[in-house]
Amino acid sequence: MNWQEYYRSRTRSPDEVAAMVKPGMRVDFPFASGAVMQRALATRGKQLDGIVDLRMASPLIDPGWLGGDVASRFRIEFELFIGNMGRPVHDRHTATYLPNLFSTGFKPHDERPSEDRPIDFAFVNVTTPNSKGFVSFGPHQWNKRMYARRARHAVAEVDANMTRTYGDVYMHVSEFEYFVEGTPPPPDLNVIEQSLAAMDAEKREGIRAVIAEVGVERIWPIVQYLQRIQLPDLRVLLGITPPPAEFKAVAGYLSELIEDGVTIQIGVGDPSSQMPRMGAFDAKHDLGLHTEMCAPGIARLVEAGTINGRRKSIHRGKAVAVAWSGSDPDDLRIIDDNPAFELYDPEYTLKIATVSSNYRQTSINNAISIDLTGQINSETVLGARMMNGTGGQPETHIGAFLCPGGRAITLLQSTAVNGAISRIVPQLEAGALVTVPRYFADTVVTEFGIARLLGKNHRERAAELIAIAHPDHRGELREAASRLFG
């Protein structure tokens, strides 16, 4: 049987595949998976007489299992990210979180299978097959191939509109068990208006303003979820929330730290994702890119030659990532079918040994808070309330820290809640999670300056951090530092 015959013989409807999922099974939707099988499985939940274990990362949609009628049929486990959509479910303790890393997440599955549950189904979205029968995973590869190759049943949701990318991105159709049609219909403004009709006037007009700003094409993939998305969350999801004025100052200090020729990584979230648009890299030369994901404006820096990878020690001349998630539409147009951009699985790309082998790897990540010893918290607020997971921050930060000539940079605004709370704190609150231990702390940037922690003791670190805290909070921080460290 040739690959075309195999593909046709294994194509099923979404409902047919969903019917194969039984209570007690483990089902995985890797980050940025397609929506078709999520909807089909949520519908299947109405027929289940039992529980399905469901693992996902930072859901972008809610087909019903996060809080709808079928939520009781799914036991949800988040990994790597939680995100705005998943946070309320985690707050209610109807979902839990798996602490792992991209590069070692499959260690229990591969090396200690008796200690781990097998993956019954993995649902991933892919491009249409090429002439040789290979598919890829579009701009949002993440760990999809890693899951598909380990699952008992790998199901491909085929999207003919998906961006084609380069790198180690391919998987043959023979490696999948089933295929479903996942190409979304073309945008239809009438359908969007029907959805808006059921909303209150304020939200309806707010969404119309968003559509006028970003276009129908960007709203269309999530049209059926507009009822459940709050307007501020929608703007964050689309990346159109204006950055605070403090980010310009952060970008200025960051620019001082970025030397020509270094290889950079930029983390998800703020302030880091705003740094390309804030001009932090505009005056630099021969930068390289080895990153988990993208940030708006990065592809334009590649196109302009600012990022050219000329001095990279691995993947010279290529911009390398796990996914191009975080790109804006202009970036994705540059990346589409462009061999200058390459994707690789995170178990290779984010392996600490890989990151540290780059030329002067420089990581740029964010924090929610940092204490005076240098403990970095990027996950929790108000003690133990999780806002998000680690993503690839531990690996990229530690890899840059260990890299010869590298630097691990942490960005944060100095305050939260309109200045009422300092993000630089004497000690992390009880229950707060330490994302990066203090012995890997390196360089911290706020809108008030740069703190250099590497090689400094607790007293010296406290002084460095107090100097970049908001002036309104420095007095209490000095008192705390005197009490803690003498």
Task: Give a quick set of tags describing it.
Glutaconate Coenzyme A-transferase, 7-stranded parallel sheet, 486 residues, 25 strands, alpha/beta, 3 domains
Description:
With 486 residues, this protein is of the alpha/beta class. It folds into 3 domains: 179 residues, Glutaconate Coenzyme A-transferase (3-Layer(aba) Sandwich), CATH 3.40.1080.10; 50 residues, no CATH class; 240 residues, Acetyl-CoA hydrolase/transferase C-terminal domain (Glutaconate Coenzyme A-transferase), CATH 3.40.1080. It is globular. It is built from 18 helices and 25 strands. 30% of the residues lie in helices and 18% in strands. A hairpin with a 4-residue loop joins strand 16 and strand 17. Helix 17 runs antiparallel to helix 18. The model has no long low-confidence stretch (mean pLDDT 94).
Short synopsis of the structure:
The protein is an alpha/beta fold. The strands form 6 sheets. It has a 9-stranded mixed sheet with strand order 8-14-13-12-11-15-20-24-25, with helices on both faces. Strand 3 (about 75-80), helix 4 (about 85-90) and strand 4 (about 95-100) form a beta-alpha-beta unit.
